[in-house]
Amino acid sequence: MNSKEAEKIMTIDWQPLCELIHQHNTFLLTSHCRADCDAVGSELALAHILQALGKQVMIVNGDPVPQHIGFINPDERVHVLGESAQPKELWGIEVLIVVDTSAWVQLGPMADVVRAFPGERVIIDHHVSQDDLGAIEFKEETAEATGRLILELGEALGVKITAEIAMPLFAAIATDTGWFRFSSVKEETFLALGRLVAAGADPPAIFSALYEKHSLPRLYLRARILSHIVADAGGRLLSSYVTKQDFLETGANTTDTEDAINALHTVAGSEIAVLFVELEPGATKVSLRSRTDFNVQEIAAQFGGGGHKKAAGVTFSGSLEEAREAVLDAICVALE
């Protein structure tokens, strides 16, 4: 695809960011904690894009890349704040780019770095958030994945999309669309995927790495989640939960809950799915999904969370039982 063809489907005016990138030489990239493929894939691809322009790039997150998506980071380019990267190493960098989030709470330890960062701050994201990170925002909330926005930026910069850029971006788009089955998928999605495959992305290899190499503890945890399913609102609302004890007994960790919520939508008649994950006695992660016009982002916003109309989340300040009661009641009321 030539630059004029790519420009036709771009959803953002990238010119201001292109100019900013050309004006600076050093860049710090970060994303949200408990990162997924869209976060890490976007970081890695953007790093390669910037390096193709002769820029110096460092990727630092608040916690490690989850083990189940470690294949996307084979060279361990993603540093962890306080471990392989110290705050003092970051102050001389000119531009900070936050990808796949614009919410303070999701940044974890990197939030303090973002607040204190003296240089230019940029956000590239596709999520709904009311937080002000003091950054120039390049957001498209209808985009299916931040990965597609990174592809657009690379093309706007005139960078050749190589296999090492294409692979993490394909994984980013594939995972954030549930392997292309979510309603966020559109013509532009497949046009972008076609360009990535042409550049060297290998869909069968990516699928195998994502979905055919799980650990036994992850599978054991999935069994617990399925055994905890509760149906409300006449089967329109399905929910499940994971306790700290479940993690201890199965040997799984919190990242092993990734994608588990989608199993709830395999039940005929289900419209809304909710998964509650007990992080600690006073904090519960809540993931919400909708496959109708029901807006789960509005539910998440009631408790300080955010996301999209059909996919949202929040870290609930309270016990697992308190979270289940409050969130499920709010959904049932909205369904009336």
Beta-strand percent range = 15-25%
**SSE pattern:** HHEHEEEHEEHHHHHEEHEEHEEH
Q: Low-confidence segments, ≥5 residues, pLDDT <50? A: 1-8
Q: Which shape, going by the Cα principal axes?
A: globular
Main beta sheet: strand number and arrangement? 6 strands, parallel
Helix content: 25-40%
What does this structure look like?
- The protein contains 12 helices and 12 strands.
- The protein has helices spanning 3-8, 15-23, 37-52, 110-116, 146-156, 163-176, 187-199, 203-211, 216-227, 244-250, 296-302, 320-335, and strands at residues 26-30, 56-61, 78-80, 95-99, 120-125, 136-139, 230-232, 237-242, 272-280, 283-290, 306-307, 311-317.
- It has a 6-stranded parallel sheet. Strands 7-8-9-10-12-11 form a 6-stranded mixed sheet, sandwiched between helices.
- The protein has 336 residues and is of the alpha/beta class.
- Mean pLDDT is 93; it is low at 1-8.
Helix-strand blueprint:
Layout: H1 3-8, H2 15-23, E1 26-30, H3 37-52, E2 56-61, E3 78-80, E4 95-99, H4 110-116, E5 120-125, E6 136-139, H5 146-156, H6 163-176, H7 187-199, H8 203-211, H9 216-227, E7 230-232, E8 237-242, H10 244-250, E9 272-280, E10 283-290, H11 296-302, E11 306-307, E12 311-317, H12 320-335
Parallel strand pairs: 1-2, 1-4, 2-3, 4-5, 5-6, 8-9
Antiparallel strand pairs: 7-8, 9-10, 10-12, 11-12
Helix pairs in contact: 3-5, 3-6, 5-6, 6-7, 6-8
